[in-house]
Amino acid sequence: MNLLHWNIWLSYISDLADWFPLIVYMTLDQQKRRSYHLLGAYLFINSILKTSTFIILNVVLVNTLPVYHVLALSEFFFLFLFFSQALGWQKWKWLVVFVIISLNIGNTIFLQPVHEFNSYSWAANSLVLVAMGLFVLYRIYVDMEDVSLHHYPLFIVTSAVLIYLAGSLFTYILGSDILSKEAKSVFHNAWIIRSISDIVKSILLLAGLWVLKRN
């Protein structure tokens, strides 16, 4: 099996992986689900959208890149609000959401149409979310004392998202070259980095939600 085949199969797995932490989230009691409802909404919407790309690509056989324009908006919206909730931010958060979503829509209209990969939007969204995630980790370290971090759900969830964003950022920044029509080299198959990051994210989110369930 060559790199292209690994790329395809790992991409398929990553498209379906968010269902597993979502299932764990659905088994939480009502109070715990309420405290993580934004993460649950992110997993639910992403699972549906990514599964639709899997079906469209393998059954309908048409371009799935328009779905990625919606995915970029969904991911930023829910994760930004989740991190804002964790930080207790109220002021300006809706202004930031409006600005970033407007930039995403502007990119789709003027720079990278729906049948092109919206790498500019993904990269900008990821940079903002990475900064937010690092703020959350800083707050955890500052505000908490004598905490076993591997037993702290927010730490595990935030780490999962940061690993995913950091691993994916390379493919987002260079997306126009990576998603070329021909995949002849390691570079042109580099979407595999994003797929692996996405799978690791799903595994760690499952672990974090399982810890939340057990606590």
Description:
Helices cover 78% and strands 0% of the residues. It has one domain (3-214). With 215 residues, the chain is mainly α. Helix 1 (3-16) runs parallel beside helix 10, helix 2 (19-26) packs antiparallel against helix 4 and helix 5 (65-87) packs parallel to helix 7 (119-143).
Biggest β-sheet, characterized?
none
Give the SSE order as H and E letters.
HHHHHHHHHH
Shape: globular
Question: What structural category characterises the helix and strand content?
Answer: mainly alpha
Helix content: over 70%
Q: How many E strands? A: 0
Number of helices: 10
Mean of all residue-level pLDDT scores = 88
Q: Tell me the radius of gyration.
A: 17 Å
Number of domains: 1
Poorly predicted ranges: none
Strand content: under 5%
Measured distance between first and last alpha carbons: 42 Å
Quaternary state, please?
single chain
Offer a quick outline of the entry:
The protein has 215 residues and is mostly helical. Helices cover 78% and strands 0% of the residues. The longest helix has 25 residues.
Q: Which features does this protein show?
A:
215 residues; mainly alpha
Write the layout of secondary structure elements.
Elements: H1 3-16, H2 19-26, H3 30-35, H4 37-60, H5 65-87, H6 93-111, H7 119-143, H8 153-173, H9 175-178, H10 191-214
